[in-house]
Design a protein that fits this description.
By secondary structure, this protein is mainly alpha-helical. The chain has helices spanning about 5-20, 25-30, 35-40, 50-60, 65, 75-85, 90-120. It is about 75% helix and about 0% strand.
Length: about 120
Amino acid sequence: MELDYKAIGKRIKIARIKADLTQERLAELIDISPTHLSNIETGTTRVSLNTIISIANALSVTGDDLLCDNIIMAKVQFEKDIALLLEDCDEYEIRIIKDMIGSLKDTLRRDANLRTADRNTH
């Protein structure tokens, strides 16, 4: 399995911004160069486990918060992400999103049944 370093970097950037830290300040806190942190956030460099842990601790987030796009069992984190997306929605937007999610879920489950049936015939 290949890690999605761009997704990890994006989550680090989002968490850093939410923590109201500049790249320079976070880099200082975890003892890396601002350039290296920038490369981590853009996904152009591989980030070590030690650095991920340092970043998570400095930003007061979990490793799951930063790595969930690469973890199969990340339902709780994605539920948090969805809740954050809905926070600033008004009543109308919530109703439309709920309808869209219901339709999407129905389609995914119907298509999953079709995929299963297709695999069984080959």
